[in-house]
Amino acid sequence: MTNQHYGQFCGLARAAEIVGQRWTLLVLRDLSVGPRRYSELVAGLPGIPTGTLASRLKELEDEGIVERLAPRGGERSIVYALTPRGEELRPALDALSRWGAGGMRAPREGEIVTTASITAALQVAAGGGVVPEEWNTTYEVHVGDVVAHVIMRDAAIAVGSGPIENPAVVITAGPQIRGVLAGELDAQTAIATGAVQLKGDPALFQRFADTLRVPFSVNVPPIV
Amino acid sequence: MTNQHYGQFCGLARAAEIVGQRWTLLVLRDLSVGPRRYSELVAGLPGIPTGTLASRLKELEDEGIVERLAPRGGERSIVYALTPRGEELRPALDALSRWGAGGMRAPREGEIVTTASITAALQVAAGGGVVPEEWNTTYEVHVGDVVAHVIMRDAAIAVGSGPIENPAVVITAGPQIRGVLAGELDAQTAIATGAVQLKGDPALFQRFADTLRVPFSVNVPPIV
DNA sequence: CTGGATCCTCAACGATACTG
DNA sequence: CAGTATCGTTGAGGATCCAG
Q: Which chain B residues are within 8 Å of A117, Cβ to Cβ?
């Protein structure tokens, strides 16, 4: 399984030899959300050939970017996780996400939102940002039938996949949620037009919309 | 020429559809250094099939990332350049470069340094950094037979390809220059061991080594 | 000479089936 | 569940050729 080698002693070329492989960036995105089993990766990456996934995981393991964790007590399955070296890819993945998001308008024919994609988008939008100490809110975000959550607490923002217990706010939207994160669709308009349906305090959704922001493009108005 | 489509409404997926193509990242790196002609790109990317380069340029043009500039008065050739949308890729290219550089040790068999690769590396290392107003120095960097230059002036650092007139310092090195930029090889040792040959004031090379830094890994000591 | 287009070969990818 | 095996298809690699 010889990866493409560009023959240049160059950081970008070395990176390209890895992330330039088909599907690799999406595998890394899914793993950046958290450790995943083989079958979860298959489910989260519709269309990936299982042989390709197996090859990519092996290559990433050989490169020290991903590790296979043997089943521990209680668990019964191997899980794949990012190594510290893999975690160091996060700034690059974030930068690519922001750039790619800047080129998105509406979904193309057949494009879907996966749990990992919305979770990763929210993580990028949170951006390790700091929030006021007194903010203590939990959000559940539904896009189609996938769910993620956002927790603001202790001056930090945490984002994860799946539902959360007793969310203060439940946000239900379609792909238009992108407009909110991009700062192109303001919170009140989003609710007024029905692009976003809310369960909970609209002021907390306003806070959500003001705090989470992607892309950081010069063409996008700054956070107020 | 159907690009790979991942079928996900996700910034990273959209980015992957473009930069995940073979050679694309290196084409973008070469163009990030400055506008280039077709033949210059061929020369700077040893091994690229000319048909592949033509395809990539066309795809990048269709995506609004690269533009073909018709020959103007004086010039006689088409040049390719990044559009503003292409320029916005720079943070992502930089992040990937830093990450890739963190995994490099010695060159692998047959790996070379190109003009664009060393120039891009120095640009990343400069990182839009600010330097003291009074620094006013020009460096010429030779690695093998490729040349780049660094200019510190007006509190800014500029990096370009090729030689420069009357450089204050001429730095000649092999791929070990990476160690200097990585902060793994300090300036005095580099000179003492002959890894770097200098023409000019060693104190100015010390300044060079202290100011230019890649990768920003947690494992690398900070700039003093 | 520059800026490609064309041709052929082969490795990689995509889809599906199958197994420990 | 976690992959491997098989096989058809596509795109990259490499050389050559052609038009302005």
A: 8-10, 12-13
Place of tokens 């999406």: A26
Question: Nearest by CB to B89, which of A46, A99, A112?
Answer: A99
* Residue linked to tokens 């705090």: A211
Tell me which residue in A16, A120, A217 faces B12 most closely, judged by beta carbons: A120
Cα separation, A203 vs A214, whole angstroms? 20
Task: State the residue for tokens 């003093």.
Answer: B224
The overall pTM is greater than 0.70? yes
pLDDT average, residue stretch A48-63: 97
Please report, as a single letter, which amino acid is at residue A99.
Answer: W
The average pLDDT across B166-179 equals: 97
Measured between CA atoms, how close is A83 to chain B, in angstroms? 13
- Choose, out of A2, A3, A5, A10, the residue to mutate when testing the contact with B (most B CBs < 10 Å): A10
Measured on CA atoms in the order A175, A180, A181, A183, is the torsion positive or negative? Answer: positive
Strand C neighbors by CB, 7 A: A 1-2, 21-23, 47-52, 55; B 4, 37-40, 49-51, 54, 57, 68, 77-79
- Burial of residue B118, with CB atoms counted within 10 A of its CB: 0-12 exposed, 13-18 middle, 19 or more buried: buried
For D12, nearest residue by CA–C1' is B52
Q: What is the mean pLDDT of residues B70-94?
A: 90
Exposure of B164 by Cβ count < 10 A (0-12 exposed, 13-18 middle, 19+ buried)? Answer: middle
Nearest residue to B174 via CA among B193, B200, B152: B193
DSSP secondary structure, A30-57, as one string? HHHHS-B-HHHHHHHSTT--HHHHHHHH
Q: State how far the Cα of B97 lies from the Cα of A82, in Å rounded to an integer.
A: 19
Q: Which of B5, B25, B98 sits opposite A16 (nearest CB)?
A: B25
Could you give phi then psi for residue B29, rounded to 5 degrees?
Answer: -60, -45
